[in-house]
Specification:
alpha+beta; 15 strands; 6-stranded mixed sheet; 266 residues; CNF1/YfiH-like putative cysteine hydrolases; globular; 6 helices
Length: 266
């Protein structure tokens, strides 16, 4: 398993071989029409960017990964643990229609209904059950990670659609790496409170600060939930280290765009 980079007429995005055959992709900042400071493939509405540019960016990205931009459903992220079941009645919410919910994770078993979660350093995870076909997208920044949103999403896929954790495939996209995720004690304390000793391999102290491996912690939650290690693919790219490819809240602040991870049941 591995993450692959694709380039189509200037648009660059990533996919995981673990999700081969499932329409999905992790965007970069390259290949859109937005002007600075959102240049160029900003997929996040409501950030001050031209809504027409955001819509065109979605058309381009969705077209590249083979999903219908007119039916895409966007998360509305508040760093909590709401997992929202998505139905055909939600098609277009967040881009073409108002969202009437907040949710940091979306799940569905309906066909051709793309789900989108966003990041500019936070963890983003795409989930697929190859047995029953259900899919999910999870936004797991450090607060959501510590609160267990990844494990909750796995449980909801089972409760709602019968997906077994041992069958799930999970791809963890680009996020801030331990090289750049320097924190005070609040983040390690939250992770230790949630995961106990399981958190320790992903936390290192360097002087007065800590460095935290967010992707590793999200992977640990997947393992804790019953997902098999051979069914987890981790991108490994650090959003803060690669301003040429990604936006980073840590490095750029609020005046920036966001990446998206999108998945749909074929």
């Amino acid at each position: 398993m591995a993450f692959l980079t694709h380039e189509e007429t200037g648009l660059t995005y990533l996919t995981s071989t673990l999700l081969e055959g499932v329409p999905h992709g992790f965007s970069t900042r390259l290949g859109g029409v937005s002007r600075p400071p959102w240049d160029s493939l900003n997929l996040g509405p409501g950030r001050g960017d031209d809504p027409a540019a955001v819509a065109e960016n979605h058309r381009r990205f969705c077209g590249a990964i083979g999903v219908d931009a007119e039916r895409i459903v966007l998360s509305k992220q508040v760093h909590e643990t709401t997992v929202r079941p998505v139905t055909a009645g939600d098609a277009g919410k967040g881009l073409w229609r108002q969202r009437d919910y907040t949710a940091d994770a979306l799940v569905t078993d309906e066909r051709s209904l793309p789900l989108a979660v966003f990041s500019a350093d936070c963890g983003i995870i795409l989930l697929h059950d190859p047995v029953n076909g259900a899919v999910g997208g999870v936004h797991a920044g450090w607060r959501g990670c510590a609160a267990g949103i990844v494990e909750k999403a796995v449980r909801e896929l089972h409760r709602l659609y019968g997906a077994r954790a041992a069958d799930l495939r999970a791809a963890i996209g680009p996020c801030i790496g331990p090289c750049c995720f320097e924190t005070d004690g609040d983040v390690p304390d939250a992770m230790r409170s949630a995961l106990g000793a399981e958190a320790e391999p992903y936390i290192t102290r360097q002087g007065a600060k800590y460095h935290v491996d967010l992707a590793g912690l999200n992977r640990q939650w997947l393992l804790r939930a019953g997902v098999l290690p051979e069914h987890i693919d981790v991108c490994g790219l650090c959003t803060a280290c690669r301003p040429d490819l990604f936006w980073s809240h840590r490095k750029m602040g609020e005046r920036r765009g966001v990446q998206a991870a999108v998945i749909a049941r074929a």
